[in-house]
Design goal:
By secondary structure, this protein is mainly α. The chain has one domain. About 85% of the residues lie in helices and about 0% in strands. It is built from three helices and no strands. α1 packs antiparallel against α2 and α2 runs antiparallel to α3. The longest helix is centred in the last third of the chain and has 40 residues. The termini are far apart. The relative contact order is 0.16. The mean pLDDT is about 80.
């Protein structure tokens, strides 16, 4: 299996998800401001919420950087794939490694969102 066989689908999918996570990153600060202005929240709950959002921001930045790396590897593979078969194999292996980390980071972020939503529901009830 080579990267050049599905590079267009991979680059488009990663670019879409990276853009989505970038918009999520931009939204985090406004969510913290909204939560801070809530008069019904206690200080401990706000501190936990802010810490969780900071963790999500760090994970999101990591996902964005991995997405940029994958797109750069796809572009590099597109430029030099005809020169040497071994280079394409190395780039394909590296792209799969980074893509695996990308997908695992997305799952980790979904897990963090689950805990944040659970905490918010407990605060409401």
């Amino acid at each position: 299996m080579k990267l050049s066989s599905f590079d267009k689908v991979l680059a488009a999918g990663v670019a879409i998800f990276t853009g989505l996570f970038f918009s999520l990153l931009l939204n985090i600060s406004s969510r913290i401001r909204i939560e801070k202005s809530n008069i019904n929240i206690d200080e401990d709950s706000f501190r936990r919420y802010k810490n969780s959002m900071k963790q999500i921001a760090n994970i999101t930045l990591y996902i964005i950087s991995l997405g940029i790396y994958v797109v750069m590897l796809v572009l590099l593979n597109y430029l030099i794939r005809d020169f040497n078969e071994y280079i394409e194999t190395i780039i394909t292996s590296l792209a799969f490694f980074i893509l695996t980390r990308y997908l695992l980071s997305i799952l980790f972020m979904i897990q963090r969102f689950k805990y944040i939503i659970r905490d918010e529901i407990e605060n409401i009830l």
